[in-house]
Specification:
500 residues; alpha/beta; Nucleotidyltransferase, domain 5; 7-stranded mixed beta sheet; 22% strand; binds adenosine-5'-diphosphate; binds SN-glycerol-3-phosphate; glycerol metabolism; FGGY_N; Glycerol kinase; transferase; kinase
């Protein structure tokens, strides 16, 4: 085995990051590139596929250079990525035929309604573990085939390839030698049978998607191909792991046993509970999804996906101009004692788990003549924690397991007001781990395992607790605040539909 470093590529919704980890899983160099978000029409969110690739390549080169290691010292690459975001490109030239449609994009809501009308909801839930929603890749592929000139004809002739961001990056890294994905990313397409671990013929037929476009599905730790020498100092590096970013964070917290849960606070909030080798079907609006696949074993998770979390803090900055930087949200929130009765439901792109309402829209309640920017900031931060409680409540009902603590990571967890409110509103300990970049760490950990650099017993020591937030809020106040929130959510539901 040559090299004792692992390079993790973390292609997120707002930035591409890369981290070099040493043989004790300590980060030794980080590279990061922000890239542009395109909002061409209301409800549409797009990324430029070439920008995704270039930003990721530059971030990787920067991480290697900052860490001071040579490319030949890198034993393996682990890839983790924003999930569901979908691209189509030409098999011959590798040219994308249009922008990537991002997971937040709502344009395919009518296609989802059509699937529901055709009575496919139950079949989709049973086969894929998912609810019918524009969030997932299936209707995004179908939309591109319908709306991009010549796309359907070319797809049927075998000229086009489809994939999520992991497949796109691997295609570029290997110079078009590998068109593959892993079981976690496949499980987010709404085309994948999570029991048989294969693309589902009936769903492909119903959505009119040629199977020849889709990548081969591998376990999350596997041989995904080798990088072209031109990308990293003339060396070919094996790609040894691929995980969707939320699954990678679960792994990075070493939540490897049934009953362990984590929440990642990035653009959205994603709460995952490991349910072991057993699939738990949700009766309360959660998704059943693949946590990872390694050595012929699949671990499943229950997931609550909240679409708008850190994105609401971005709105305070870019939409309302109340702050210049997300970090300032904490200072502004600290200028008042509480939210002053203000409740904000940031349903900017509808509501995800546990409501799955594509037509809900954001709203602000409880304004008075005394409402100040601080109250708005505080209510915005609280909305992240309240949405999390909606999900953990559903999780406890579905799994029958009361949560004992919540492990947290992601860009927003450095906000102590948010973390304290999270502990308060859950009545649970919130544990912020030492390593901030848990997503990248998770991908690196699996790549290291797959490559034989580490043993499973070592994983837990890689990311110890850094800070504990204990619940301090009086139980009566906690429940009153939560009832207020539920009331506000009810009033946002179906808003867009009611307008039509
Ligand atoms: N101090 C902070 N308080 C609250 N939110 C924050 C803070 N710092 C960053 N954020 C939010 O975290 C998000 C970025 O987190 P990150 O994990 O990088 O997201 P992603 O992987 O979705 O790109 C942004 O939406 C930003 O608004
Ligand atoms: O890129 P993030 O961290 O916002 O994660 C996005 C999720 O994978 C979407 O399902």
């Amino acid at each position: 085995m040559s090299g004792t470093y692992i390079l993790a590529l973390d292609q997120g919704t707002t930035s591409s990051r890369a981290i070099v980890f040493d043989d004790e899983a300590r980060p030794t160099g980080i590279g990061q590139r922000m890239f542009k978000q395109h909002f061409p029409l209301p409800g549409r969110v797009e990324h430029d596929p070439e920008e995704i690739w270039i930003s990721q390549l530059e971030a990787a080169r920067e991480a290697i250079s900052v860490s001071g290691v040579r490319a030949e010292d890198i034993a393996a690459i682990g890839i983790t990525n924003q999930r569901e975001t979908t691209l189509i490109w030409e098999r011959e030239s590798g040219r994308p035929i249009g922008p990537a449609i991002v997971w937040q994009d709502r344009r395919t809501a009518p296609l989802c309604e059509d699937l529901k009308r055709r009575g496919l909801e139950l079949y989709i839930r049973k086969t894929t573990g998912l609810v019918v929603d524009a969030y997932f890749s299936a209707t995004k592929i179908a939309w591109m085939l319908e709306h991009i000139p010549e796309a359907r004809k070319r797809a049927e002739a075998g000229e086009l390839l489809a994939g999520t961001v992991d497949s796109w990056l691997i295609w570029k890294l290997t110079g078009g030698n590998s068109h593959v994905t892993d079981v976690t990313n496949a499980s987010r397409t709404m085309l994948f049978d999570i029991d048989r671990l294969a693309w589902d013929d009936r769903l492909l037929r119903e959505l009119n998607i040629p199977a020849s476009m889709l990548p081969k599905v591998l376990m999350s730790g596997a041989d995904f191909g080798r990088t072209l020498p031109e990308w990293f100092g003339g060396v070919e590096i094996p790609i040894a792991s691929v995980l969707g970013d939320q699954q990678a964070a679960l792994f990075g917290h070493a939540c490897v046993e049934a009953g362990h849960a984590k929440n990642t606070y990035g653009t959205g909030c994603f709460i995952l509970l490991n349910t072991g080798e057993e699939q738990v079907a949700s009766a309360h609006g959660l998704l059943t999804t693949v946590a990872w696949g390694w050595k012929d074993k699949i671990h499943y998770a229950l997931e609550g996906s909240v679409f708008v979390a850190g994105a609401a803090v971005e709105w305070l900055k870019d939409g309302l101009n109340l702050i210049d930087d997300p970090d300032e949200s904490e200072r502004l929130a600290a200028s008042v004692e509480d939210s002053g009765g203000v409740v904000i439901v940031p349903a900017f792109t509808g509501l995800g788990a546990p409501y799955w309402d594509m037509y809900a829209r954001g709203s602000m309640f409880g304004l008075t003549r005394g409402t100040q920017p601080g109250h708005i900031a505080r209510a915005t931060l609280e909305s992240l924690a309240l949405q999390t409680r909606d999900v953990t409540n559903a999780m406890e009902k579905d799994s029958g397991i009361p949560l004992r603590e919540l492990r947290v990571d992601g860009g927003a967890v450095k906000n102590n007001i948010l973390m304290q409110f999270q502990a308060d509103i859950l009545g649970l300990d919130v544990v912020r781990t030492e390593q901030g970049e848990t997503t990248a760490l998770g991908a690196a950990m699996l790549a290291g395992l797959q490559h034989g650099l580490w043993q499973q017993e070592q994983l837990r020591s890689f990311n110890p607790p850094g800070a504990y937030f204990r619940p301090l809020m009086d139980a009566e106040l906690r429940e009153r605040k939560y009832r207020h929130w539920q009331n506000a959510v009810e009033r946002t539901r179906g808003w867009e539909e009611a307008e039509d």
